[in-house]
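User: My collaborator sent over this chain with a note saying "see what the structure looks like." That's all I know about it. Can you take a look?
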Amino acid sequence: MRVAIWAAVVAAWLFASATPSSARGPYGSITVGNWKGGAFTDDKSGAFTHCSAGSTYQSGIFFMVAVAANGSWRLGLAHDSWRLTPGEAFPLALTFDGQPAFNVYGMPLGEKLVNVEMPVNSALINQFRKARQMTAFAQGQLFQFNLNQTAQLLPALLNCVVSVKKNGVASAGEFAVATKPAAAPPQAAPNPPPQKQAKSGTGTGFVVSSSGHVVTNHHVIDGCSEITGNLSGEAPIKLRLVSSDETNDLALLQAPSPFKDVAKIRQNAILVGDGVVAIGYPYHGLLTSDFTVTTGIVSSLSGILNDTRFLQISAAVQPGNSGGPLFDLGGGVVGVVAAKLDAVRVARATGTIPENINFAIKTGALRDFLDNSAVQYQSAEWHDATKRETSEIAKAARGFTLLVTCKVNEQTAGAKKPGN
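Assistant: Without extra context I'll predict from the sequence alone. Here is the result:
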C-alpha cells in the first residue's frame, strides 16, 4: 500500500473514535526524508486534532509518529498481513539501540493497525527521541526501523502542532523547516564561541553529601576529558565523574575531600506560585567571576508538553546556570536548573519573544538519581517559619555552590563541545 494511502488511513484511525472518515487531512505537509504527513482535523467538528507523519519500510510495515493537540504522543504500526482483533491488547517488544526491550501493549484500532501510547514523561518516549535504531517484535516477526531522521521529524511535528493551534489549518504550510521549529524540548543555550585553543566550558554544581559529592547537569560535563570545580574565590580542584543520567540530564561528581557545607534537599512538594531563588555562574568571566542570584516563582509544575520531570520557573537563568541549585524561600533545594526556552526559535515560529520561561529538574528525579548512586544526602522540610531573606540564602549557598569547568582534549574536541 502506498505511503499516502497508509498515512491517511493510519492518521485517521489514531485519533478517531469511530471510523476513518472521522478525521480529515493532511493540511500542510511534513516532509523529512521518507516521512510524510501533516495536520489533521475532526471531520465532524472541524477542530484540529493532531499532527502526524509516517513512512513505509521494506518489510512492508508502515510506521507513524503523531502528536495530539493536547501534547500527547503515540506511535502507529500497520501491516497488510495483520489480522488483528480491535480492542484486544497487542503485545510488542520495542528495542532502541540494542538497549533492554520495552514490553508494551498496543491497542488494535482495526485489522491492520496498532496504536501505542507514549506518555510524555515515560522512559519509552525518552529512548525513542534519542535512538538511531528501533526494532519491534510482534506476532513472531521482527521489524527494524532506522530512526536517524527523527531528530528532524520530532521538531517538525511540534512545529506543526504549535503553528496550527496558533494560526489554524488555513495557514498550514511545510512544517519541517529546520530553522523555524515552533517549540523545542528544553535545551541549554550554548557558550559564547570559544577561542580556537580554549576547549572549555562552564556550568554550576552544588554539594549534596558530606563525602564531597556534587550534582550538576549531564550536558555540562558530557564529553569532558577533565572536570574541575571551585567555590567562589577559591582555587579549582579536580572532580571525578561518579555517574550520570542523560535522560534526566543529571551527573554526579566527587571531590577528593569533603566540603564544609552541604545543600539540603526539600522533602515536601513545592506549589505553583511559590517563590524560588536560582544561584549560578552565568557567562563566567564575561559578567562577573562571582555567582549571581535571581528570584522568581514556580510558574508550572511541568515543562514543555507537560513533561512532569520539570518545573517551569520565572527566575532568570543564562548559559552557565545549568546544574545550579534552585531554592525555595527557606533555602531548601527544590530543583536543578537545567535550561531556558530558546527565545530566538520561538520568536521565529510565533512572532513573539517568550519571557521568563526557564526550567529546573524536580527533586523527585534528583532523589532517585542520588538513591541509585548510594549517596547520603540531607533533607529539609518547608514551613512558614523557615522563610529567609534572599541575602541569607545566597550567603549559605556560597559554601556549597561551585563553578564547574569542563575541559576537552584535542581528540574529543571535534566530536563534542562543552556546553551549559
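A starting point for your reply to your collaborator: The radius of gyration is 23 Å.
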